[in-house]
Structures are given as C-alpha cells and as structure tokens.
C-alpha cells in the first residue's frame, strides 16, 4: 500500500478559496518579509485564501486576522 499525499509545496496564489495551508517559505526581500511578519504572516502561519483572482490582490485569513496581499507578493509565499 502506497501512502502518498496529494499535498505539496506550492504558491499561495495556487490555493483554492478556503483551502487551509501553512506557510513554509517566503522568497522576498527582507523589508517586505518584515512588514508581513508584523501583520502576523510568517513561516509557520496557518492561512486560508478568502478572496481574490489571478493577477489581483488577495485577501487571506491568518489566524484570527485578515491581510490583503498584492498578487506579486503572494506568488513569493509558498505553502503546504
């Protein structure tokens, strides 16, 4: 019996709406990463995409908070 998982590391922008995930990597400059960390978004954060579309900003749930993230920045956030 094979036990493979359908979950894999992918970009935040690839999540379906309301799909839970955990941030595993953030590939952006230190200033942007620090700003997001101050808002509660960092490696280890549980996230869900609440709204957004390809090429547009997205609204994500991070813990009990909500954060709006530019699409280009969201593409630099990797989740599992």
Task: Give structural notes.
- The chain has helices at residues 30-38, 71-74, and strands at 10-11, 21-26, 46-52, 58-62, 65-69, 77-79.
- The longest helix is centred in the middle third of the chain and has 9 residues, at 30-38.
- The protein has a single domain (10-79), classed as SH3 type barrels.
- The chain has 80 residues and is an alpha+beta fold.
- The two termini are 23 Å apart.
- Strands 1-6-2-3-4-5 form a six-stranded antiparallel sheet.
Q: What composes the largest sheet?
A: 6 strands, antiparallel
CATH architecture: Roll
The CATH class: Mainly Beta
Assign the structural class, choosing from mainly alpha, mainly beta, alpha/beta, alpha+beta, or little secondary structure: alpha+beta
Mean pLDDT: 91
Describe the structure using short key phrases.
80 residues, SH3 type barrels, six-stranded antiparallel sheet
What's a quick, concise take on this entry?
Helices cover 16% and strands 35% of the residues. It has one domain (10-79): Ferrous iron transport protein A (FeoA) (SH3 type barrels).
Write the layout of secondary structure elements.
Layout: E1 10-11, E2 21-26, H1 30-38, E3 46-52, E4 58-62, E5 65-69, H2 71-74, E6 77-79
Antiparallel strand pairs: 1-6, 2-3, 2-6, 3-4, 4-5
């Amino acid at each position: 019996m094979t036990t493979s998982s359908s979950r894999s590391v992918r970009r935040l922008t690839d999540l379906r709406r309301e799909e839970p995930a955990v941030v595993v990597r953030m590939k952006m400059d230190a200033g942007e990463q620090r700003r997001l960390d101050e808002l509660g978004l960092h490696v280890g954060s549980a996230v869900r995409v609440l709204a957004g579309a390809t090429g547009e900003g997205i609204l994500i749930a991070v813990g009990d908070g909500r954060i709006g993230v530019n699409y280009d920045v969201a593409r630099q956030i990797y989740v599992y």
